[in-house]
Amino acid sequence: MSETGHGASSKDTLGAALGRMPSGLFIVTARLDDRATGMLASWVQQVGFEPPMISVAVRKGRFVTSWLERHPYFALNQIGHGQKHLLKHFGAGFEPDADAFAGIGVTESETHGTIVIDDAVAWMECQLAHVFATGGDHDLIVARVISGQVADGALEPAVHLRKSGFHY
Predict the structure, then answer these.
(1) What is the DSSP code (8-state) at residue 72?
(2) Looking at domain 20-160, what is its CATH homologous superfamily?
(3) Which pLDDT tens digits describe the chain residue by residue (168 residues)?
């Protein structure tokens, strides 16, 4: 029998394989009382048809998770290819009292007042269903999609590949 090269992998080769898993780029926008924030999310996936459901992985300890547990409505704003200004703006994260939307055009949804980014390719308004503690460094938020639309059908969604699956 010949050796196929499919034996044990090193952390580097495993990281390279994990990094090849494509993901979209999204801005999760949330609010609590008179505060609002946005965070960059790349681990987002549709997880159900009826009702439509999505999942978002959020690093443990991010205040956004506790906000969503108290106010369960948020928007998932899809970033388009070439929209580096949104990546730069939301990539570093914000403190809870920071003005996360300074210089960014936004609109509030009519139903639950969620924040929709005007430049987003598409957006979905979501309602938190459950937060799953994964035992790892991220928790999994599962939410029901209650509304949404494509804002700019001509702009292709951004797709993200990483050099290593062990860091952003």
Answers:
(1) -
(2) Electron Transport, Fmn-binding Protein; Chain A (2.30.110.10)
(3) 444 566 667 888 898 898 888 889 999 999 999 999 999 999 999 999 999 999 999 999 999 999 999 999 999 999 999 999 999 999 989 999 999 999 999 999 988 999 999 999 999 999 999 999 999 999 999 999 999 999 988 999 999 888 888 877
**Confidence (pTM):** 0.90
| 8-state DSSP, 88 | H
CB 76 within 8 A of CB 26: yes
Domain ranges of the chain: 20-160
Is cis: bond before 96, omega within 30 of 0? no
